[in-house]
Write a structure and sequence with these properties.
Number of helices: 4
Distance between the termini: 35 Å
Structural class: mainly beta
Strand content: over 45%
Length: 550
């Protein structure tokens, strides 16, 4: 069972991580009409593995293509902002050959917003829409007490079809007939919403953005807000609210489809009916983080002038994150178990801070640290929650949850995958098997020591293998010497061998090697045999552990 789990960890992927190979998004309108600047919209695309090809499409046209190495980030500028309500083909599709993460950045003058674009695996067909009291919310944002223009009184909903087929979408409403929409393949629709909309149900997966083009704040300033909604199946009932230094007035909003009760360290128990629109003031969040407990699964947001953040549920804490900052005013907020808070790393150094604060009535503490540039935040033995914030020149905050990379902690760093074996069940020639293992970022296993041979023998015995498997050993056509082919490296120093009796045979018998279950022994130690290279055999791949760094 342990071996099976190991293989699953190596070649399976956690469904809550923010990396993937296919993404679809859009750039909502960023008015910032107080600033006569041209909007700047771009994607920050970072590869997790070497030689990752990335293609970006919009309007069914290839807008960008490149090959990225592990930890390399490319900024891709796109002039595809959504200016009108209704249907549009201004979606942006990102395809890659291996795992990447994508951060969306929208800027116009001092109006700026970022959010982590979710891969296809994190999308769904059903979303509950936050039922905000928009007038109350915008009035709260407007510190000058001025009347809000009717033009900017409504929020917008952007629904993006993630599939290359027509998609039937229903928008459910309270006390109103539902709205039906047909989305073109990879198309989208932008709609004004007034709080009556309660849910989205689609035939195929969609991405959903809740956005406002110009939330008014203070001193005749405004800022775009963008929140990519999480589908209902990713909701939870336990949250740890982040405390951000010098954040202006903070409100809490809950989204739920049923009657729930909310309580926390500094909240009186509060009952909510389905689709609540209440905004709760949480002034203690200015100086301390706190926990929130719901009686059932909900989605929580903290709202502040220019800021609209869907919180990370505790069950979605990870061991490793990436943070990316465009300015020199970056702030990382980390939530960690109090007993293990001293084992948080920024890149290759410990996060050393005396600013940790316990979160009342919980096992967690939080800390904020100022950084700039791009970094990997990870924990050596536990899971953590990480947020990344920046400030505009006006001091208004923007940002949100950091980019989640890996759930399982590792004492050596941000572990993308462990080392281990995989049996390839499709019979292929030696060359085909070698190339196939390379495509999975591994290699044909090469047992170059007695310890390696014991590892592979134990693994194959656990898997009850009863047939020959290719390994990474073959004979040179020129020197007739046996050598190991490990990745792109050829090693002729074959100091350890484990040939079966009478092996290797002459070159006519075979110039490639397999490991074979010797049926005469009760405990099989899988000695080697020479086999003709064009023979079709199954194979055993091995992947080295992969740690991520920028």
């Amino acid at each position: 069972m342990l071996t099976i789990l190991l293989v699953a960890v190596i070649f399976g992927q956690g469904q809550s991580c923010d990396y993937g190979k296919y993404f679809i998004t859009a750039f909502p309108e960023n008015i910032a009409f107080y600033y006569p600047y041209i909007p700047s919209n771009y994607l920050k695309i970072t590869a997790l593995y070497n030689d990752t090809s990335v293609d970006v499409y919009s309007y069914n046209t290839l807008m960008f293509t490149s090959i990225l190495q592990s930890g390399e980030t490319e900024n891709v500028s796109l002039n595809v902002q959504l200016y009108k309500f209704g249907h549009s083909s201004r979606s942006v599709i990102i395809n890659s050959s291996d795992y990447i993460v994508v951060l969306s950045v929208s800027q116009q003058g001092d109006s700026m917003q970022t959010h982590v674009v979710q891969p296809l695996k994190n999308l769904d067909t059903f979303y509950t829409i936050p039922c905000l009291n928009y007038s109350e919310m915008i009035s709260t944002f407007n510190k000058m007490g001025q009347n809000i223009s009717k033009k900017n009184s409504l929020f917008r909903l952007v629904i993006i079809n993630s599939e290359d087929v027509s998609n039937h979408v229903i928008i459910q409403k309270q006390q109103f007939p539902y709205t039906e929409i047909i989305l073109d393949p990879n198309g989208l629709v932008q709609l004004p919403i007034n709080g009556s909309e309660i849910a989205i149900e689609a035939d195929y997966k969609v991405a959903v953005l809740l956005t406002h083009p110009c939330v008014e704040t203070s001193s005749c300033r405004c800022n775009i807000v963008v929140n990519q909604l999480r589908p209902d199946f990713k909701w939870s009932n336990f949250f740890l609210l982040p405390s951000v230094v010098n954040m202006n007035e903070t409100l809490l909003h809950v989204t739920s489809a049923m009657n729930i009760q909310l309580s926390g360290a500094n909240l009186e128990p509060t009952n909510f009916e389905p689709y609540p629109s209440n905004l709760l003031s949480i002034p203690s969040l200015q100086s301390n983080s706190q926990y929130i407990l719901a009686s059932d699964a909900v989605s929580l947001r903290i709202i502040s002038p220019g800021l609209f953040i869907e919180l990370i549920p505790e069950y979605r804490f990870h061991a490793c994150y990436m943070v990316q900052f465009s300015s020199k005013h970056g702030e990382v907020l980390v939530i960690a178990e109090t007993a293990y808070k001293d084992n948080v790393y920024i890149d290759n150094r410990l996060l050393s801070s005396t600013g940790w604060r316990p979160i009342a009535q919980s096992e967690y503490s939080s800390v904020s640290v100022t950084v700039e540039g791009d970094h990997v935040i990870w924990h050596s033995s536990s899971i953590i929650g990480v947020y990344m914030f920046e400030r505009m020149r006006s001091g208004i905050l923007y940002g949100g949850p950091a980019i989640a990379l890996k759930v399982e902690p590792d004492p050596l760093g941000c572990l993308l995958h462990s080392s281990g074996f995989e049996i390839i069940p499709t019979p292929m020639t030696w060359v085909q098997s070698y190339q196939n293992c390379m495509l999975t970022k591994g290699e044909l296993f090469s047992p170059t020591s007695a310890e390696d041979q014991m590892l592979i023998s134990n693994f194959l015995n656990d898997q009850e293998i009863k047939e020959d498997l290719w390994i990474g050993l073959r004979c040179s056509l020129f020197s007739l010497d046996w050598y190991w082919q490990k990745g792109n490296m050829s090693t002729y120093n074959v100091s350890y061998t484990h040939w079966a009796t009478g092996e290797p045979g002459d070159q006519v018998k075979g110039m490639c090697a397999s490991t074979s279950p010797n049926p005469s022994n009760s405990i099989k130690d899988f000695p080697w045999k020479s086999v003709q290279c064009c023979t079709n055999l199954k194979s055993v791949c091995y992947r080295q552990a992969k740690y991520f760094s920028l």
